[in-house]
Amino acid sequence: MNILLLGSGGREHAIAWKLKQSSSCDELYIAPGNAGTAESGTNIQLAITDFAGIRQACLDKDIHLVIVGPEEPLVKGVVDYFKANPVALSADIAAEMGLKEVPVIGPDAYGAQLEGSKAFAKAFMKRHAIPTAAYREFDADNFSEGLDYIKQHSLPIVLKADGLAAGKGVLILNDREEAAQEFTSMIQESKFGDASKKVVIEQFLSGIELSVFVLTDGKNFLVLPEAKDYKRIGEGDTGLNTGGMGAVSPVPFAGPDFMQKVMERVVKPTVSGLQKEAIDYKGFVFIGLIMVGEDPYVIEYNCRMGDPETEVVMPRLKNDLVELMLATARQELDQLTIEYDPRIACTVMAVSGGYPGDYEKGKIIKGLDKVGSEESLVFHAGTAEKGGKIVTNGGRVLCVTSFGSTVTEAVDRSKKILERIEFEGMNYRKDIGFEFN
Ligand code: AMP
Ligand code: GLY
């Protein structure tokens, strides 16, 4: 089977690496990919939202399956585009795959609103009695009610831009006046563009966060290993939010009793909710949870895998990923079970100097040839090949995932490898998994 994967981050390198291990994977293309994905397959220079170009690439390269890494193409309707403009599979491939048209793994634009609209996600949770923070939504029409709501709201106040805002649309404020100002700037001054035309104000929940990943075919589902990511730039979870500086899987505090609650109260009602509402969802649901006392609450849904969580989940997953993707497209996930490596996997992300603020690109990355190790893997994120050299090409540059029998052992292994890699301005957190040491 020939596969096209959309995206260019560490998540996509980990997915590409995993796909390539399947005996069913013939040609693997990644659009646009990075210097790491070029080791697992062939990069194609295509924008992830150029749907006509993606469809044309499917025809030109005889692609049989499309997998979408990031949320943007899903929210913008790549699945809908392929539904309206299907690519037929040849008779022999159709027979082999049990499908007539090239499937695109991911929800349609309506389903992707679970991530693309906070108000949609909150209303979905409300309809299906899924535990989440109490909330109200506001826009220009009920703006002054929003200001009144803030006046009597308990602190801290959580303000969320409704739409996609590159991970920056959530503000947690300890001052009502400041909250009122931010709320005003979101709705009246388009602080986050159209994304903040609508704002969700919600109750602050205090607890530990973790992420649970569900693969659903719209009827059946499988739960992948859970993970915890480290969003802040600074050690001890301080400083600005980033896309993610590291991750750990499994999550030591997520014991069987807690995971059972997650299953009954969150995962099952989420999948049955999608089914009851006839939402066409064949793909990953990333459930961001917070453990309050002993109970799970949903902080957010994403319509894709997490990054850098994928870089610990994929190495632990023992299943054939192509088989999982195909079963998703065929709505046959009930025929499979998830098998995973019981060892602990941790990843540590190396970022460009200045990130998550301004940073420079194009710094030569040295030492990548010296990283060979049984227990560790290097996944590229923002990297590119330039004149035969691998250079930095983003804020998050690369991560090293290692296995260990403890979190400390795994993190130490990743740090040892990172000591052999260098680029100007390189920075990484040395305390990933600190609360589990
Ligand atoms: P999001 O952009 O939805 O991932 O939210 C960013 C971060 O804000 C989350 O990872 C949480 O740490 C925090 N957050 C969001 N909603 C709440 C809430 N209701 N209570 C406490 N923290 C929250
Ligand atoms: N690591 C968080 C995310 O992928 O959204």
Features:
437 residues, alpha+beta, Rossmann fold, Dna Ligase, domain 1, D-amino Acid Aminotransferase, Chain A, domain 1, 3 domains, 9-stranded mixed β-sheet, 6-stranded antiparallel β-sheet, globular, binds adenosine monophosphate, binds glycine
* Largest sheet, strands/sense/barrel: 9 strands, mixed
Q: Tell how many strands the DSSP assignment holds.
A: 23
- The CATH architecture of the largest domain: 2-Layer Sandwich
The structure class reads alpha+beta
Give the count of helical stretches: 14
Write up this protein:
With 437 residues, this protein is of the alpha+beta class. It has three domains: 104 residues, Rossmann fold (3-Layer(aba) Sandwich), CATH 3.40.50.20; 68 residues, Dna Ligase, domain 1, CATH 3.30.1490; 229 residues, ATP-grasp fold, B domain (D-amino Acid Aminotransferase, Chain A, domain 1), CATH 3.30.470. It has 14 helices and 23 strands. The strands form five sheets. Strands 1, 2, 3, 4, 5, 10, 11, 16 and 17 form a nine-stranded mixed beta sheet that branches. Strands 12, 15, 18, 19, 22 and 23 form a six-stranded antiparallel beta sheet that branches. A four-stranded antiparallel beta sheet has the order 6-9-7-8, with helices on both faces. Strand 13 and strand 14 form a beta hairpin. The longest helix has 21 residues. Glycine binds next to loops.
